[in-house]
Amino acid sequence: MASVWKIPGSPWRAILESAFFANSVRKTTMAELYKLALKQPEVMITSEPMHKPEQFGLPKSAKILVSNDGGIVGRTARARRLVREFTKAESDKFQGILKEAVYQMNRRPCLWLEGIVGLHPDFMVKAHLLSPETDAKNMLDWGINFTPFMKPWSDLYKKSRKLDEPDILVFADPEWRHPEFPNGLVIIDEMENNIAILGLRYFGERKKGTLTLAWTIGVRQNMVACHGGIKKIGNKPPIAVFGLSGSGKSSITNSLDHEGTLKKSEKVTVIHDDAFLIDLENNFTVALEPSLFDKTDAVKFNDPIIKYFYSAQNVAVTQMPDGSRRIVAEDIRNDNGRCIKSRDMFKHADFCERPGKVIWLQKDTSLPPICKVNGSSLAVAMGASLSTMRAKGVENVDPKELEKLVIEPFANPFRVHPLLEDCQQFKKLFKMGCECYIMNTHAFGLPGSLIDIPKELSLSIVTELVRERIEWREWRTFTGLMLPKNGNELFGSDYDKKYKPTRNPEYLRFLRDRMQDRITYLSNKRDIDQDMDNSFIDPLVVARTVIDRILNPE
Hints:
By secondary structure, this protein is α+β, with helices and mostly antiparallel strands. It folds into four domains: 2-221, Phosphoenolpyruvate Carboxykinase, domain 1 (3-Layer(aba) Sandwich); 224-289 and 350-501, Phosphoenolpyruvate Carboxykinase, domain 3, CATH 3.90.228; 292-345, no CATH class; 508-551. It is 29% helix and 27% strand. The chain contains 14 helices and 32 strands. Strands 13, 14, 15, 16, 17, 23, 24, 25, 28, 31 and 32 form an eleven-stranded mixed sheet that branches. Strands 2, 5, 6, 7, 8, 10, 11 and 12 form an eight-stranded mixed sheet that branches. A five-stranded mixed sheet has the order 3-4-19-22-18, covered by helices on one side. Strand 29 (443-444) and strand 30 (451-452) form a beta hairpin. Helix 1 packs parallel to helix 3 and helix 8 packs antiparallel against helix 9. The longest helix is centred in the C-terminal third of the chain and has 23 residues, at 505-527.
């Protein structure tokens, strides 16, 4: 699905595309970006070797470079504006702001980097990043995170299937300032595949902004947009997990032995732990990036995993007695330390067939560690009302907000196409026979008496799901969900004692309230945003009604 040349179809596209052709702009290479990043004032050069730098045209001696972003070390969702939601007056206002931003950035030396999003010959979209020369490190990271337009990727792109879509354009100026937008501004025109990222330093804004456009392109091609992880275990169909950062998405996806519960014969092949598309017509799942952009909170000093790093952001650097400079991670300096690293640390592939199982990772303490969902509409409803807690530092939000449970449909806060489109695409997937499960990876029980759900248990559950060894029984107080019959046998003799839901009225009221949270959220999407269908609300209403009858039999 290689993109094709098209005349700009919107003023937003015309404004941004024209910016690439100013006299101040020159096309750049990864080699030039590395040289510029070495001289960038705020960048730190470590003594840690970069993993396989030659593949990007960099010198074999290249080192891991570290950049820190000041006070902002996470994404700023409140900066985002969608062009399709603007009134006429808002369009005029923001086009004026964007034209001025382009003018001011074009007055400085700027660089144009070409890249590719998508790793399957039937889905490869060309992307272009324009930034000031002073932002070379972020541009270098963008090229590494996706793929720069160079061999061997450019050869694959030329052979890929053509798609009636314009290239992705990303315009990013971290030095932009505006008194009305102290937290920056992101303008997204997903219909024409462009995004302007203004006043934001964090690399994740560029990565997720680019993915946002790629996901939207995929949905237009009858694909399912996925913010999650997908892997194969042995010869079983792929298993996909969906969750926000901190939900266990990467831990589950990237685990090679599931804490020792997998046999040596059950070899793991990782596709990706963050972004992919499922093609519903051609039975393939494609990763959008060749690299991993992961948290470094668990990376120890001199950790062997550092040898797979390409780059790092928002981590500390220390100098050893011998003069060498080393990365200090574990979120000691600040929350949400990050790295871009290679998938070479495990067996990996760029694509696979459609998943046979989908797991919604939820931090909803009313739910036990694992449930199976019966019915495609309820499976969609539970994904569209995915309940979780935000990971510390990932989002640039008030610390008090981090304590609250939030609903994030399909764990994808970067979706800009209508939610109903995602619901319809996932329903098609489940109708094709894909099974759906819900895993609570946080804790179970009533507030004040929570029982922790350890990572080891979550991984062993995934193992038994793949082996098809879990026997299921109906959960009579949550119509449409099923519980393990043999939990004690598979997960320890105290599994049922800890995690079996009771019919205690206090617990049932708590479970009902959490159901109502989901119903209210989806109903608001229907009534206020006109972006939800009753068919995805009704299964939850049925389940709530059953609990109401138990609590109030009269």
